[in-house]
UniProtKB/TrEMBL annotation:
<dbReference type="GO" id="GO:0005524">
    <property type="term" value="F:ATP binding"/>
</dbReference>
<dbReference type="InterPro" id="IPR037171">
    <property type="entry name" value="NagB/RpiA_transferase-like"/>
</dbReference>
<dbReference type="GO" id="GO:0009396">
    <property type="term" value="P:folic acid-containing compound biosynthetic process"/>
</dbReference>
<dbReference type="InterPro" id="IPR024185">
    <property type="entry name" value="FTHF_cligase-like_sf"/>
</dbReference>
<keyword id="KW-0479">Metal-binding</keyword>
<comment type="similarity">
    <text>Belongs to the 5-formyltetrahydrofolate cyclo-ligase family.</text>
</comment>
<dbReference type="GO" id="GO:0030272">
    <property type="term" value="F:5-formyltetrahydrofolate cyclo-ligase activity"/>
</dbReference>
<dbReference type="GO" id="GO:0046872">
    <property type="term" value="F:metal ion binding"/>
</dbReference>
<keyword id="KW-0436">Ligase</keyword>
<feature type="binding site">
    <location>
        <position position="53"/>
    </location>
    <ligand>
        <name>substrate</name>
    </ligand>
</feature>
<feature type="binding site">
    <location>
        <begin position="7"/>
        <end position="11"/>
    </location>
    <ligand>
        <name>ATP</name>
    </ligand>
</feature>
<feature type="binding site">
    <location>
        <begin position="138"/>
        <end position="146"/>
    </location>
    <ligand>
        <name>ATP</name>
    </ligand>
</feature>
<dbReference type="InterPro" id="IPR002698">
    <property type="entry name" value="FTHF_cligase"/>
</dbReference>
<keyword id="KW-0067">ATP-binding</keyword>
<protein>
    <recommendedName>
        <fullName>5-formyltetrahydrofolate cyclo-ligase</fullName>
        <ecNumber>6.3.3.2</ecNumber>
    </recommendedName>
</protein>
<keyword id="KW-0460">Magnesium</keyword>
<keyword id="KW-0547">Nucleotide-binding</keyword>
Length: 195
C-alpha cells in the first residue's frame, strides 16, 4: 500500500480489487450484507431510505432493497439532477420502476417529478464508496455528488449517511479533503463499523 500516495492511485487500486471479485464472491457479499442490515437499529424507525444500484464492482444492495420493500420501508435511488450539475435527486424505487442508464452508464429511475423524495425527508442515505478508512473517511468516485448532497445536513440527525462497501475496500488511513463528509457508520459483509 506504500505506492498508494494519491486519491487517484487509491481509487484505481480499490476499483481493480472489487471488479476482480468473482460472481460467487459478489453474491456471498450481498447475502452477508443483508444479515448486517438486520442488526441496524436505525432501520427500526426508518420510513424512507436511499440506496443505489450497483455498478463497477460495487457491493450489490439489491437484496437489501427487497428486504426494505418487504418491511414497508420506502426505498429511493439517486438520479443525476438534470438541471443542477453535480447534484443528486432521489426518486422512489419500486419493482415496477423504469430504469435507464445515465451519462456514466449507471442505471437510474426515469425522471418523474411525482416520484422525487426531498433529501430532508430521507431517514438514511446508504452511500456507495470506493474506499474507507478506520476513522470513517470515505473516498468516492471523485464526482463529489454525495458530499454535495450530505454537506447541508452535517449538523442534522437526518438523513443519516451510512456507507456500504466490500471488506477489501477498507484501508488504515485515507488522504481526506475539507469537503469530504465523514461517515458515522460503514457496513461491510463481515462487520459494521461505527465511530
Amino acid at each position: 500500500m506504500q505506492s498508494l500516495s494519491t486519491r487517484s492511485d487509491i481509487r484505481k487500486h480499490i476499483r481493480t480489487l472489487r471488479v476482480a471479485l468473482t460472481k460467487s464472491e459478489q453474491q456471498s457479499a450481498a447475502f452477508q450484507l443483508v444479515a448486517q442490515f438486520h442488526q441496524l437499529p436505525e432501520l427500526n424507525s426508518a420510513k424512507n431510505v436511499a440506496l443505489y444500484l450497483a455498478n463497477d464492482g460495487e457491493i450489490d444492495p439489491y437484496l437489501v432493497i427487497q428486504w426494505c420493500w418487504k418491511n414497508n420501508i420506502n426505498t429511493c435511488i439517486p438520479v443525476l439532477h438534470p438541471f443542477s450539475k453535480g447534484q443528486l435527486l432521489f426518486l422512489r424505487f419500486t419493482p415496477d420502476t423504469e430504469l435507464a442508464p445515465n451519462k456514466y452508464g449507471i442505471l437510474e429511475p426515469t425522471l418523474s417529478v411525482a416520484e422525487i423524495v426531498p433529501v430532508a425527508e430521507l431517514d438514511i442515505i446508504f452511500t456507495p464508496l470506493v474506499a474507507f478508512d478506520t476513522h470513517g473517511h470515505r473516498l468516492g468516485m471523485g464526482g463529489g455528488y454525495y458530499d454535495r448532497t450530505l454537506t447541508p445536513f452535517i449538523d442534522s440527525s437526518t438523513p443519516k449517511p451510512i456507507g456500504i462497501a466490500h471488506d477489501c475496500q477498507q484501508l488504515d488511513t485515507l488522504p481526506n479533503k475539507d469537503w469530504d463528509v465523514p461517515l458515522g457508520k460503514i457496513i461491510t459483509p463481515s462487520k459494521t463499523w461505527s465511530w
